[in-house]
Description:
Arc Repressor Mutant, subunit A, 5-stranded antiparallel sheet, 16 strands, about 325 residues, alpha+beta, Creatine Amidinohydrolase, 2 domains
Amino acid sequence: MEPLKNAKRPLHIQGDTVAAGLHPSAIESGKIAARVLSEISTEIEPGKRIIKLCALAENKIKEYGGNPAFPLNVSINHIAAHSTSPKGDRSEIPEFGLVKLDVGVHIDGYITDTARTIDIDGTLEGFVSATDDALAEAISLMQPGAELGEVGHVIEKVIKEYGLRPIKNLSGHNLKKYRLHAGKIVPNVKKRGIGTVEVGEYYAIEPFATTGSGTVIDSEYVFIFSNTGIDEPLEGTTEKLRKYLRDTYGSLPFASRWIGTSSKDVDVIEEIKTLLKVRALRGYPMQIEKKDRPVSQTEHTVYISEEGPIVLTQMD
C-alpha cells in the first residue's frame, strides 16, 4: 500500500535523545512491552496452554523491571478483547486461525500498550496486513493538531481496502499516569467532534479488522477486573479483599487468577461476585465479534512531541 501523501514518518528514540516531556519511565516501559511481545510471539504454536503463556509474559515483564499494566490478553479468532486465562484454565492454542497478543506494562504508572496478531497456519495473512498497515498510516497522522476522528477515517479506509471491516465499537485510547483509558479515543472509523491530538499526550492506537459485522458484543465470561474507588466499608473477608485489591492494583486491571488465599474456607470467586454486586469492582467481559468471525489487531503506544509521534513500543 502506498503511504498517504501528507503523512509524516514517525520519530524513533535514538540514543539519549529524549523529546521534551517524554518521561524516561515511559521509554523503558515501552522497551519492555516490545521485548515481551516479541518473545511471547515465538511461543505461539498449536497445543500450547494459554495460561502458561500468560504467566510467562507477566513474569518476563517483572523480570525486565516493569509491572503488568493489565493481564496478558490472548484472544483467539472471533474473540476480540479482554481475554485472559482464569485459574485452572486448560484451553490451548488451536491448529489454525488468528491469535492476538496484547501486552501492557507500566513503570511508576507510565503505561505502554502493544499488540500483534499471529496467523497460526498462514491462511489469514490479509487480516494481519490490514491492521498492520492501518496502524502505520494512523501513527503517521498523529501530529499535533490532527483531528482524532480523521485518524479513524484513515484506519477505516485502509482496512476496507483489504476487503475487511473495522470494528467500530473498539478504539485506541490516550494514556495518563496510572490511567489506561484516560478519556480521548482513537476510533477505528470516522467520527466528528471528538478532539485533536496535543503535544505531551500518550496514545495507544489499535486498529481491529474482521469479515463480520464490525461490532463486538460482551460474552458471559469475565476474568479481568479493576477497582472502582468506592471506599464504603464492607465486612469480614470481603472487606479484607477489597482493601488488598485496592492497595495492590490501584486503578489498573488485574486477573482473577492473580488472587489467591491460603484459607480453604475462602471462595475467592464468590468474594469477587460480592464486590461486583456492591460496585467495589468492575468487570471487563470478554468481547467477541457479533457474527463470530475472525478478528485481527495491531497496536503501538506513541508519545506526541512537537515534531510528531514517537513510537515507544517498537523493537530497535
